[in-house]
Task: structure prediction
Amino acid sequence: MKYVVFFSEKDFSSFKLDKSSGLKDYNYAYINSLHNLRSFLNKKKPELIIWSHKTKISSEIFNNNPELYNTHLLSIISEDSIETWQPFHGKHHYLPESHSKAELLLKIDALLCLKNEKTFEGEKVDSALIPDIETLKNYIEEKGEQVTWDKNKIIFRENRHSSFIYLISNGLVKTSRMDQLGKELITGIYRNNELLGLYGFHKNPICPETATTIESSRVHRILYKDFKEILQKNPGLSLDLAQHLTDTVLRLKSQLLEMAYASVLKKTSNTILQFADDLQNPDFQGLKISRTDLASIAGISPESFIRSLSCLKKEGIISIKGKNINILNSEKLQHIT
Result:
């Protein structure tokens, strides 16, 4: 008999009425005290534990039942705790308190399906066959936890420990740092199919920047611990990542030289060119980045950036309609000095 355990002061007894076809084979246990939870876990081994209790997760329970480290654990946490949340073990997930019943059911269904998939497919075999970055991205999307954030939500903060490697599946994310005067300096823009959070290869490195969604975004993520194990099993992936990071450093050096010596017009044109593929797509709905953020990427003031846009528009190189910027002559834009 398979169990899903709800550990909560709240009454979840009505939840059993909402079983979907995918969950019909599971029984639900509703427990409201730590003593009863210990007693239950000594007798039965659940497939999933949902922790929605004010009592903090007890390491004693897991140490007394080591097999629970392979059991999915879902914490229901407050919105204020999301930014500082740290997983208790590799199969620890969370859901905000504001979740709906439908969201909870989907999460439970996903975790139980994930457990079954890993049982039959063999996660260890898969993780040992990742020779390059593209395969790593496929692995994160297939095996990682999916998380969705609304616009202007912080994914992680500067100077905090990072627990995850992220893959942007859909959306737009910016990274930034604060200077001594409290001014935000944008350090990067991340789009679909880009990795975020590569700040080191040790356990839970410190984030050197803050990541914030520019639009509603969906990402997949894996724990740093799992990422490190993947690297240890795949020397080809380590070399590919080393080359990727080297290319990133060289690109950043070029950007630093540009910010130091290039003209304001050149900085503006190069910033627009970063989004050339999107801007020249006939189905593109327009940049969702503010002029202030674009100016920060260019390393100039918003006023200078807007004046440069007007100049490029007058020369017929770009067109501007509302917030939308379209490239009319990419060759001229590339050769601006």
Summary: The first helix runs from residue 34 to 43. The domain at 262-334 is CATH 1.10.10.10 (Arc Repressor Mutant, subunit A).
